[in-house]
Amino acid sequence: MSKGLGLLSGGLDSILAALTLRRQGVEIACVAFVTPFFGADKALKTAQALDFPLRVEDISEVHLEMLKAPRYGYGKNMNPCIDCHALMFRLAGKMMEEEGFDFLFSGEVLGQRPMSQNLSALRAVANYSGYPERVLRPLSARLLPITPMEEAGLVDRERLLDIQGRSRRRQQELADKWGVTDYPSSGGGCLLTESSFSGRLRDLFTHRPEADVTDVELLKVGRQFRLSPQAQLAVGRNQSDNEAIKRLVRPSDILIRADNFSGPLGLVSGAAGAEELAAAGAIIATYGKGKNEGTVRVLLQQAERKWTIDVIPMPQDGIGRMQIL
């Protein structure tokens, strides 16, 4: 029996790719990768429902380094889909070699995404992964050049599929036929495809190319403000955001909140001097209960050090100029 290791997102395409192989006797296992931009919740739910052996790997750091300078560039927003898929195949390929799998597979469909799933892009992904002869796309395999796995009889090409294009009709028909009833809607799931988040990330990379995974996680929290080319402020919108900020604070970061009025929690990251901290305090004051006061005292904390400064709440037009949208 041949063995295939698949990339599982939990979406319908990846589900059907795994089932296509399992239905012809291939022993399948799956891997789901986690970064700040996408998680494994859907994959975990799918694996449990369909009895797919699954391992989950956090690749945040290596993925971030790729994201800063993708060889094939970005899509419409900050999504480097070709580089991302190649990276996942490269990492899965190492598991394949270490654990005795015969090949890799995914739910990619020829022509489903015009820029990242055309024939040239699929070939680029396989080549850049380092395993060009061991990548199989079961849903479109009969439309693609025959692979060594098919030639060697590890999989039966005649029982693979010939799906192409953006329509989901064929996939939905197969799902009905094979009894797959619980699967997420197509699209979404990756923050890098969202224009609002991409704007924040682009600003971060422009001003702080050394940004790490925690800096990226902070972009997902509340409101974001550019205090200076070197300093940034995240401001919680609600208690959940405030708790997230507390979890993400590092010894070099500065927590900031109003000392004598209720309001949000903020976190200043990067190199901030007195001017940047005063601006951060003014923003925090504006979003708190003291927004109509002449001055507001704000409390700052960096590691074990605590101190206060008095600030004037910032007018809305000033906030608008500093906010990262």
TrEMBL record:
Key word NAD present: no
Top-level lineage group: Bacteria
Keyword line: ATP-binding, Nucleotide-binding
Annotated GO MF terms: ATP binding; CCA tRNA nucleotidyltransferase activity
Domain Thil AANH: 3-139
Residues covered by the NFACT protein RNA binding domain: 222-319
Name of the molecule in the record: DUF814 domain-containing protein
Pfam families, alphabetized: NFACT-R_2 (PF18297), ThiI (PF02568)
Keyword Transmembrane helix in record: no
